[in-house]
Design goal:
It contains 10 helices and 11 strands. The chain has 317 residues and is α+β, with helices and mostly antiparallel strands. The protein has a domain of 88 residues. Strands 8-9-3-10-11 form a 5-stranded antiparallel beta sheet, with helices on one face. Strands 1-2 form a two-stranded antiparallel ribbon. The chain has a two-stranded antiparallel sheet with strand order 4-5. α4 crosses α7. The longest helix has 31 residues.
């Protein structure tokens, strides 16, 4: 056996061991206990052993399922068989399909709700708009600086989660002064996001809690005497996004015309299992449960797909 063949076999073996040890044996044991089915376990908040999230985002033990095993590369395609995708092993009951919807631009929309300003107005005018293209064009119009989609998108999320020019510089491999210029151009075009973060810090410094859309209050995180005010923006945005997803789950579960059963929720998506004959009505019902949540100034939008396993979900409206 050549060195290349041996390397291919060893790599496949390592990936197969991980596939079996991390996922397949665990799922198989659970399915033996529950008549062929397995159920995700959810953490609702950060636990003492560091499972779960501080923001209230639901986290489950199967939310990080890889799309592929990583064993299949061009280098070894002619030497080893493909390993199955973990997601392809998760299937609905006979005669049923998975219906999934995920919120479109959930965190940016939540930020627009709180920051108000240009993005909120743009979403109200066109709920389906491409927000990153909108920001890109806005920066050009107001500063004359042309930033392509990648830095615009990255800055938007760094703004929400407390990152700055240093992080942008490292991720894009650009000079720190160039990164600072990008941030300055962004702030000139969209000052409302920067102002939102200042307002959040001011509220916390006054002794008040930062309260998410769902009414959960947070104080500033303190570690070793250091106060992490910059994290409060993440708390408000992620926490309110979590509230939105949970509200959608409740609205779906208690809908009088519901035919399906919730199978999984991960971050901004909800997956349900439904009889094939009810796919059309169920995807419309789930859309209503997610898109029509009252109490938001920004229009909500979700995208739907359908499939016979979690690896092969096709767009469906």
């Amino acid at each position: 056996m050549s060195d290349k063949n041996l390397l291919a076999v060893l790599k496949r073996r390592a990936k197969l061991q991980k596939l079996l040890g991390t996922y397949v044996r665990k799922f198989n044991q659970s399915s033996l206990d529950y008549d062929g089915k397995f159920f995700p376990y959810y953490n609702q908040t950060r636990s003492e052993d560091d499972y779960g999230t501080r923001t209230g985002r639901l986290s489950s033990d199967i939310q990080q399922l890889p799309k592929d095993t990583g064993a299949n590369t061009d280098m070894f395609d002619d030497l080893i068989d493909d390993l199955p995708s973990v997601r392809s092993l998760i299937v609905p009951s006979d005669g049923k399909s998975f219906v999934k919807r995920d919120f479109s631009g959930q965190e940016i929309r939540v930020a627009a709700h709180y920051a108000e300003g240009k993005i909120l107005k743009a979403y109200q005018d066109d709920p389906k708009m491409d927000v990153h293209a909108f920001v890109e064009n806005l920066i050009i119009d107001m500063t004359g600086i042309h930033l392509n989609r990648t830095p615009v998108k990255m800055i938007s999320f760094l703004k929400l989660y407390g990152g700055g020019p240093t992080v942008l510089s490292k991720r894009l491999g650009i000079d720190i002064e160039v990164a600072r210029g990008f941030f300055q151009a962004y702030d000139t075009a969209l000052p409302e996001f920067k102002q939102l973060m200042k307002d959040i810090e001011s509220i916390s410094r006054s002794g008040k809690k930062i309260v998410t859309w769902g009414g959960r209050g947070y104080d500033v995180e303190i570690k070793n005497g250091r106060e992490f005010y910059y994290k409060l923006g993440n708390i408000l945005i992620q926490g309110s996004s979590a509230d939105m997803t949970k509200e959608a789950m409740i609205r779906y579960f208690y809908h009088p015309d519901r035919n399906g059963d919730m199978a999984l929720t991960v971050q901004d998506e909800i997956v349900v299992e439904v009889d094939d004959e009810h796919i059309d009505s169920e995807i419309a019902l789930l859309k209503c449960a997610m898109d029509d949540i009252p109490g938001w100034d920004v229009p909500l939008k979700s995208d739907g797909c359908v499939g016979k396993n979690l690896a092969e979900m096709k767009d469906y409206e």
